[in-house]
Write a structure and sequence with these properties.
Helix 3 crosses helix 5. This protein folds into 2 domains: 191 residues, Rossmann fold, CATH 3.40.50.2000; 174 residues, Glycogen Phosphorylase B (Rossmann fold). It has 15 helices and 13 strands. The chain is globular, with a radius of gyration of 21 Å. The protein has 375 residues and is an alpha/beta fold. Helix 6 links the parallel strand 6 and strand 7. It binds ligand GMT. The site of ligand GMT has 20 residues, from helix 1 and helix 4. InterPro entries: Glyco_trans_1 (IPR001296), Glyco_trans_4-like_N (IPR028098), Glycosyltransferase_grp1 (IPR050194), Thiol_BshA (IPR023881). It holds the Pfam family Glyco_transf_4. This is N-acetyl-alpha-D-glucosaminyl L-malate synthase. GO terms for molecular function: glycosyltransferase activity. It comes from Flavobacterium akiainvivens.
Length: 375
């Protein structure tokens, strides 16, 4: 199949999922065209089946806001015609599903019928898309997609609850490449990060309010009172600076490293002992799955789709949003002796295997077949 993938090219989970999906589809022989405003961060283009087309938005002083949707939908029309693309797969409803719908309409006028698959990722439904300014356009785009998927059952339920959706939503969970050989080949430079007697606790996110970064710091503050440990903070966003200040106030700055954005997520996870994700909500929690696939247990909240990924008392523990004490106490339980930690590490890997890319990919291929058949 010839498929156009539209996504955000940044470090966010939706862009990562879209990129990894495209890479695997290309390996499986499909011709994949990424269409976005910058090369996606995880996109390595060395495969003849992979193509990247940049959307340029000409700056014009008359426009207070430059019209990206217009440029994207025009680019989609041009690329579909030029490359004979058969299907659009748009990740994140705003504005991708909207632009995709416009492209479909323009192409139809020119006698080209093309189906559009929309994948909902979470914040496009639970945080941003739900805003009254966007809601009608998001409902419209979802209802006019040919097939709609969501990354968890919880997100599917939320979408039906928050929007007036008249069509079926298929759950296709996020996935991960569980490759033990690849892990074994990673340079695990643990000694550079912490002493032999210290445990390494990691958090990775975009440091937005929804991630409850102060809770990450507070949970770690409690843990380090009982277990010699270091906290690695990976990522960047508005909550980073206040978090650095909080660490200073708590007198734990020497135990916390703020890395900023990093392309070495696997290298960092390979020497981590525990992953913290105390988010207000997560439609799925891809970062938690990435940790688990590297054999790192997870302490998370029980919000949104997180219970579909992290399993209480098996791959980690899940607390109520804001229950720092519970999450810290359970973290200490996991880290208190090597045997317990080793069991949780094995369990985390076991759960991650349920989401192996090879199991999830056929679900997307079936979705594409269904969308094409509907034309
Ligand atoms: O977590 C974020 O703020 C980024 C956001 C995104 O749109 O990239 O992540 C969402 O999509 C990910 C991939 O499907 C999910 O794993 C995240 O849970 C989801 N984030 C939220 O629901 C807050």
């Amino acid at each position: 199949m010839k498929i156009a993938i539209v996504c955000y090219p940044t470090y966010g989970g939706s862009g990562v999922v879209a990129t990894e999906l495209g890479l695997e589809l290309a390996r499986r022989g499909h011709e994949i065209h990424f269409i976005t405003y910058r090369q996606p961060v995880r996109l390595a283009l060395l495969n003849p089946n992979l193509h990247y087309h940049e959307v340029h938005v000409p700056e014009y002083p008359l426009f207070h806001y430059q019209p990206y949707e217009l440029a994207l939908s025009s680019k989609l029309v041009d690329m579909v015609k030029l490359h004979g693309i058969e299907l659009l797969h748009v990740h994140y409803a705003i504005p991708h599903a909207y632009a995709g719908y416009m492209a479909k309409k323009m192409l139809k006028e020119q006698g080209i019928k093309i189906p559009m698959v929309t994948t909902l990722h979470g914040t496009d439904i639970t945080l941003v898309g739900n805003h009254p300014f966007y809601k009608p356009a998001v409902s419209f785009s979802i209802n006019h997609s040919d097939v709609v998927t969501s990354v968890s059952q919880d997100l599917k339920d939320e979408t039906y609850r928050l929007f007036d959706i008249k069509r079926e939503i298929f759950v296709v969970p996020n996935f991960i490449e569980v490759n033990k050989d690849k892990l074994a080949g990673l340079p695990c430079k643990r000694s550079q990060m912490a002493g032999d007697n210290q445990k390494i606790i990691t958090h990775i996110s975009n440091f937005r309010e929804v991630k409850r970064i102060p809770d990450v710091v507070k949970i770690f503050n409690e843990i380090q009172k009982h277990i010699p440990s270091k906290l690695l903070m990976v990522g960047d966003g508005p909550e980073r600076e206040p978090a650095e200040k909080l660490c200073e106030e708590l007198g734990i700055m020497d135990k916390v490293i703020f890395f900023g954005n990093s392309n070495e997520v696997n290298e960092i996870l390979c020497f981590s002992d525990l992953f913290l994700l105390p988010s207000q909500t997560e439609s799925f929690g891809l970062a938690a799955l990435e940790a688990m696939a590297t054999g790192v247990p997870v302490i998370s909240t029980n919000s949104g789709g997180l219970p579909e990924v992290n399993r209480e008392g098996f791959s980690g523990y899940l607390g109520n949003v804001g229950d720092v004490q519970y999450m810290a106490q359970k973290a200490v339980e996991i880290l208190k002796d090597d045997e317990t930690l080793a069991t949780f590490k094995q369990n985390a890997l076991k759960v991650a295997q349920e989401f192996d890319i090879q199991k999830i990919m056929p679900m997307y291929e079936n979705i594409y077949r269904r969308a094409l058949k509907q034309q």
